[in-house]
UniProtKB/TrEMBL annotation:
Catalyzes the formation of 4-diphosphocytidyl-2-C-methyl-D-erythritol from CTP and 2-C-methyl-D-erythritol 4-phosphate (MEP). The record marks 43, 50 as: Transition state stabilizer. One of its GO terms (molecular function) is 2-C-methyl-D-erythritol 4-phosphate cytidylyltransferase activity. This is 2-C-methyl-D-erythritol 4-phosphate cytidylyltransferase. It comes from Streptomyces xinghaiensis. The lineage of its organism: Bacteria, Bacillati, Actinomycetota, Actinomycetes, Kitasatosporales. PROSITE patterns: ISPD (PS01295). HAMAP family: IspD.
Length: 269
């Protein structure tokens, strides 16, 4: 056997050095999760900021951080705390057991979800190549959903959303500002609609560009993939999960605690 075999080419191994024509090899992939947790939770009713409210005794944010850290793809979690609550959130996280293999940073957030995500992105170290953006308000997302999103990004998709088909028929309405009844403008074909969840996954450079472009335009989007769509790039859909629902209204707390109780009974955690 020849002793001059070419070293195997792998994105996980140091490459043989810059290629004379194509330049340096791409950096090895490293995935971070950004968790926007700076919202008040107005729709949940009076109380602490939503991410700090408890589900079966544990803050929603801790459930969300653990859900991200459970994915082997994620080695860093950046939590975006309420603007004046970063120290409190740091203490809260230090008081709860988190996987030691995952680094957890905390930064203060902004007045909109989009601004909070931008602030989280700005805090990422240079070697992060892929980003998962995950609502603290979706504390029960299963690891398989996180892994599926992370894998699709590593596979080359610029943006990935987990999504589910809708159970209800959706109407487009003409919203009235004068207190009169809304009227229906149309009924989109339900089979073509999806309810999207988080984590949404992105190539880091793509997401940063999408946020930079959105900021000066002042037109917000209700999710990060919506900003990537405006760049004209494809957004890939992977199966979502019923347990990745967003805790938005009081009834969602009842459902979340029931899911946790069932998990404890069947899985022991
Ligand atoms: N300024 C904001 C607003 C929202 N979020 C986060 O974005 C996620 C999704 O938002 P949503 O469920 O709408 O939370 P709230 O904005 O807190 O809810 P509400 O609209 O009822 O106040 C949540 O994890 C929330 O903490 C954020 O980081 N910064
Ligand atoms: C990002 C999101 O969870 C996708 O469904 C959703 O758009 C967040 O919306 P909200 O206005 O912050 O509740």
């Amino acid at each position: 056997m020849s002793s001059s075999t070419t070293p195997p080419s792998s994105p996980f191994l140091p490459g043989p050095g810059p290629h004379p024509e194509t330049g340096p090899p791409p950096p090895p992939p490293r995935t971070a999760a950004v968790i926007p947790a700076a919202g008040r939770g107005v729709r949940l009713g009076p109380g602490a900021p939503k991410a700090l409210r408890t589900l079966n005794g544990t803050p929603m944010l801790v459930h969300a951080v653990r859900a991200m850290a459970r994915s082997r793809a994620v080695s860093l979690v950046v939590v975006v705390a309420p603007p004046d609550g970063a120290a409190e959130v740091r203490t809260l996280l230090d008081d709860h057991a988190l996987p030691s293999t995952t680094e957890v940073a905390v930064v203060p957030g902004g007045s909109t979800r989009q601004e909070s995500v931008s602030l989280g992105l700005a805090a990422l170290p240079a070697d992060i190549t892929d980003v998962l953006v995950h609502d603290a308000a979706r504390p029960l997302v299963p690891a398989e959903t996180v892994d599926a999103v992370a894998a699709a990004v590593r596979g080359g998709a610029p943006a990935v959303v987990p999504a589910l088909p809708l159970a209800d028929t959706v109407k487009e309405v003409d919203p009235r500002t004068d207190g009169g009844p809304e009227t229906v403008l149309g009924t989109p074909e339900r089979a073509r609609l999806r309810a999207v969840q988080t984590p949404q996954g992105f190539n880091r450079e793509t997401l940063a560009r999408a946020h930079e472009k959105a900021a000066p335009e002042g037109e917000g989007a209700t999710d990060d993939a919506g900003l990537v769509e405006r760049l004209g790039l494809p957004v890939v859909v992977v199966p979502g999960h019923e347990e990745a629902f967003k805790v938005t209204r009081p009834l969602d707390l009842v459902l979340a605690e029931a899911v946790l109780a069932r998990r404890r009974a069947t899985d022991g955690f």
